[in-house]
Design goal:
36% helix; Rossmann fold; alpha/beta; seven-stranded parallel sheet; Ornithine cyclodeaminase family protein; 15 strands; eight-stranded mixed sheet; ornithine cyclodeaminase, domain 1
């Protein structure tokens, strides 16, 4: 029997602190070889692309694939540009255990990965957070990072004043001051930790703006080698850590274009997030160093989050069960 979990089911079941812990362990497992998450192939379709993001994990006795549809033309009709569905498969029987809507899972596991990177790479004294982009990812990143650093002020920039206002309302329950910034440069100049959360094609952040001691999570660009949020100088100025080396070299425009321009070599993209957790000496070496986490997103993050949800749904009797083999 397979469980079907809708977006509403996911909203009711998801535990953000548990996702953080699961994502941290997932990156350890990836680094030590206990899990696999290969770079996804890009499947072109008319006007868009589809990425099958697969992973397997011995710890969880399962495999998973998230089918991510990237449809930019949807924006013209007022629909999301990206949609996703996750299949969770048993490693013991090979049967499908669950079919899950991926929208909220993607946002929360992405923020969890950035928080894990921030916990292991940023200065422990960091108290200010900068957000370039103010949508759902900004809300989730604020909640995730505020749990692991004593954040008391958020600087946020968006092209839309209305989006900033919605962000302010969405985090009103947190004891954090929110200040609207006039530009991305102002955010980078003011914050200890910065997250770029835009689907940008051209760099929206320049390395020349970086201050000593900054940690930046580069998150928002879609998994396309021609999209990026930071310029090559930014990549060259920082200790670069990636979620998955194979995925970053294939799908991260921030990485691929910096290499093409001569700011980096492929050998410079050698440290994965799991490596830093397992061997902290591979992370921040001193307080004035600049660290950068380049997050493309990997199927293993979806797998461990889906596993948490299925276990919680089973325990609480949530979701619809379907006999797919019937």
């Amino acid at each position: 029997m397979a469980i079907v979990l809708t977006h509403s089911d996911v909203v009711d079941l998801i535990d953000r602190a548990a996702v953080y812990a699961a994502v941290e362990q997932a990156h350890i497992d990836l680094s030590t070889g206990a899990a696999a998450s290969p770079a996804p192939s890009m499947l072109p379709i008319d006007g868009g692309t589809v990425l099958p993001m697969a992973a397997s994990a011995r710890r969880h006795r399962c495999s998973a694939v998230k089918m991510l549809s990237d449809m930019p033309f949807n924006r013209d009709a007022g629909h999301p540009a990206q949609r996703s569905t996750i299949l969770l498969m048993s490693a013991d029987t090979g049967e499908c255990e669950a079919v899950i809507d991926g929208r909220l899972i993607t946002a929360i596991r992405t923020a969890a990965a950035s928080a894990v990177a921030t916990a292991h790479l940023s200065r422990t004294s960091s108290t200010s957070l900068g957000l370039i982009g103010a949508g759902t990812l900004a809300v989730e990143h604020t909640r995730a990072i505020a749990r692991i650093r004593p954040i008391d002020k958020v600087f946020v920039w968006s092209r839309s004043t209305a989006t900033v206002d919605r962000f302010r309302s969405a985090v009103a329950d947190l004891d954090i001051e929110v200040e609207s910034a006039d530009s991305p440069r102002q955010v980078v100049s003011a914050a200890d930790v910065v997250c770029t959360l835009t689907p940008s094609r051209e760099p929206i952040v320049q390395g020349g703006w970086f201050r000593a001691g900054l940690h930046i999570n580069v998150v928002g660009a879609p998994p396309r080698a021609d999209h990026r949020e930071v310029d090559g100088a930014a990549m060259a100025a920082a200790r670069v850590v990636v979620d998955s080396r194979s995925t970053a070299l294939a799908k991260s425009g921030d990485v691929v274009l910096a290499i093409e321009e001569g700011h980096l070599t492929a050998d410079d993209v050698a440290i994965e997030l799991g490596d830093v957790i397992v061997e902290p000496e591979r992370g921040r070496a001193q307080d004035d160093e600049i660290t950068l986490f380049n997050s493309v997103g990997i199927g293993l993050q979806d797998l461990v989050t889906a596993r948490l949800l299925v276990d919680a749904a089973t325990e609480r009797g949530v979701g619809m069960t379907v006999e797919l083999a019937g």
